[in-house]
């Protein structure tokens, strides 16, 4: 701990940069996690409500139900709304509209903040290495100009040890960020698969409604999941 405090005191310019990047990384991660939590919808509960709205009031009632959901829940408010708004034009129009909503609207929202998180993860390592290299260059220059012998060597060893804290801080910032980025990307891919499954469920419900047949939201052609 004393060595770390000495690094912060003696190399405060790099310490401030690293601490600032770490703080920004924590804020971005918390923000992204909160967005992920709020974007989820319990589809096992919502689909029966949607089917009931279709049976009682038709497509307009189902569309109104979807629009009434919280804006952060992207499946009802963006995916299903896009499909229901084109339901009267046929199944093909619904598929095209929902595919466009996923590609152009929902996925960019799900990837929000991921590029800055990855950027900080990569830059933190380089900044830490830069701090170490610059500090060691200065130390070796001082050592070359010194004539104090053993005392100078001891001081140089201490300075090199302190300089390595910059690399350590960079790695401590970068490793969790890169790991979190990989997890977020995997979550986005899983969410995309679930959206496509629920889009197919919506098409089945609308087709059954048009044909006057009862439709079950847990149709086997699309596996139900809670998103």
Write the layout of secondary structure elements.
Layout: H1 2-10, H2 12-38, H3 43-67, H4 74-85, H5 91-110, H6 114-145, H7 150-211
Helix pairs in contact: 1-2, 1-7, 2-6, 2-7, 3-4, 3-7, 4-5, 4-7, 5-7, 6-7
Return the string of H and E elements.
Answer: HHHHHHH
Total number of helices: 7
Low-confidence stretches: 219-227
Report the sheet-strand fraction. Answer: under 5%
Strands, count: 0
Q: Describe the largest sheet.
A: none
The geometry reads as rod-shaped
Structural class: mainly alpha
Nearest-angstrom radius of gyration? 28 Å
What share of the residues lie within helices?
over 70%
What does this structure look like?
- 82% of the residues lie in helices and 0% in strands.
- The chain is mainly alpha-helical.
- Helix 2 (12-38) packs parallel to helix 7 (150-211), helix 3 (43-67) crosses helix 7 and helix 6 (114-145) packs antiparallel against helix 7 (150-211).
- Residues 219-227 have low confidence and may be disordered.
């Amino acid at each position: 701990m004393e060595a770390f405090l000495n690094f912060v005191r003696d190399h405060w310019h790099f310490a401030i940069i690293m601490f600032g990047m770490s703080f920004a990384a924590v804020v971005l991660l918390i923000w992204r996690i909160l967005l992920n939590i709020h974007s989820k919808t319990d589809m096992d509960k919502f689909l029966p409500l949607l089917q009931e709205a279709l049976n009682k009031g038709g497509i307009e009632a189902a569309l109104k139900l979807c629009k009434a959901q919280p804006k952060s829940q992207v499946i009802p408010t963006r995916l299903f709304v896009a499909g229901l708004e084109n339901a009267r034009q046929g199944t093909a129009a619904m598929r095209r509209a929902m595919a466009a909503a996923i590609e152009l609207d929902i996925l960019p929202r799900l990837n929000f903040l991921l590029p800055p998180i990855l950027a900080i993860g990569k830059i933190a390592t380089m900044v830490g290495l830069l701090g170490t290299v610059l500090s060691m260059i200065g130390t070796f220059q001082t050592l070359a100009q010194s004539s104090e012998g053993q005392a100078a060597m001891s001081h140089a060893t201490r300075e090199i040890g302190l300089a390595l804290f910059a690399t350590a801080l960079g790695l401590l910032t970068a490793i969790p960020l890169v790991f979190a980025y990989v997890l977020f990307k995997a979550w986005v891919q899983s969410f995309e698969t679930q959206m496509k499954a629920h889009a197919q469920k919506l098409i089945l419900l609308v087709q059954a409604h048009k044909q006057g047949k009862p439709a079950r939201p847990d149709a086997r052609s699309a596996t139900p999941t809670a998103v």
